[in-house]
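Lab meeting minutes (informal)
Scribe: AK
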Amino acid sequence: MTPLSINQHHIPLTGFATVRLNSTSEEFGLLFPQRHDMGPLVVNGDGKALFALPLGGAQPFHYFRLGMGGPIRGILFRQLRLAVDLTSHVNHNAEAPLGALTFSSGKAAILASDARDHFNDAEPFALPIDAEASDEVPIAFKRWSIWTMVEDQAFELWRGEAVEPPEKAE
């Protein structure tokens, strides 16, 4: 089954929710913010904090914590699925750049950096999506996509690639 791109097709209303997320929201999904100057965000909240990870824009894959009094409104897709380009696999521990989709210890994560961290240290931005992966064979993919099922149709919501760090001057 080939997913349809949301840029080329209409999505039934049953496939998403309009939401107003705040710092104590308990949501996970892909949010298309109401503001057109913001790209899609992976959001993950536990009721105590809501973290947002931009997938594009000026600082892709630099997550931030939503502050008090700063809600985000938009369209949220909750039932996410992931797909990877198998030819883009890299060593999880040595070669994975920001934005790589990683699988280890039965969990999926996106390598991200805290937006406040000017050293761009990569750390896993955990996704509450189970994956068949072990600590003995962790793997990362540089090219991957997010999609969802609405009724009997697959829709690709986002497709992208990890961000390679700039070359360091010698």
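Next up, CB showed the second protein from the same session:
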Amino acid sequence: MHISLPIDKELNKTLKEKVVHHRERFKNLFKARYLEMLPSLIKYKNAHEVSVDFMKVEVALRNGYDVVIGETKNRNIQVIGYATSKLTSNNPEDLWSTKRLRHGDIKFIIPDYLKLDYYSEISHQDECTTGNFTVLRNKTLNYVSDYNILDHYVDELAEIVLSRYSISMQVKVTTLFLGEPNDETLLQIISDIYNGNPYIPASLLFDPEEQIYHMNNEHVAQNFQELKREYQNKISELNNMLGLNSLAVEKASGVSDTEAKSNRAYTTSNANIYLDGRNNGLEKLNKRYRLKLEAMYNDDVVSELQELEKVEDKKGGEPSNDNDTV
């Protein structure tokens, strides 16, 4: 959305609004991009065995739906709806229940002519020999949503981006002007300098020697590298929470292979939270219908993120030797 600022505002108010809009715009862009990426993180092996659009399944799971995959009258295995109840022995959150989900526990999305006369959840209680549908969940236990995770890290990243944006302005403005509040001549001079005007008209009452003070703030630019490093670290933390492998540490001298993989156990555990929620249901479906479906992380997406991190790390640090993984 294009934001038009009135031309009669003082420059300090205009810059303040620019900073605020910059932060909010980053938050919206970054969160939206990750929400777009989430459905692509997990793919399904042997998906050709069933008539299921697993991309739509991923979108539904990430939005909190427990997706029901089952048999139809034409003997296809496809998405037939979503579960309206979590009270079932197949839900790990329901520790002591012996109940199975039935026809009335499903919100159907298929037409009536494809529905079977009776639906019963496949269960390990009878070694998966009966039943005609299973339920896929986003996570085994769902105490925090993906949206909350994103919101937390987006807020932290936005503050880092805001600091970088503010520093870029501070480096640009290296001169202090002394004068009366709301001095239109002084404000016009400041505006012209900020906008790069090579010719600046001024009143005869304006004395450059008394009213202009040159500030030495070149050291402020040195903070860019540290902010960039912290930005990368926060993205790595976010990726790890989502089960994506990323660099465990980041430093100017490069990262060794051991250091890069030092958080692999934590990342794998986070990945299993999502994979187990899907494979728990797929395993029962596989056993009932002799299929070989399996949810796994999309290696293409993971490898692209890793390559991006390597490039950014190399930009921010010194060249490493052959034994370093950057």
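CB comment: The longest helix spans residues 11-37.
No objections, moving on.
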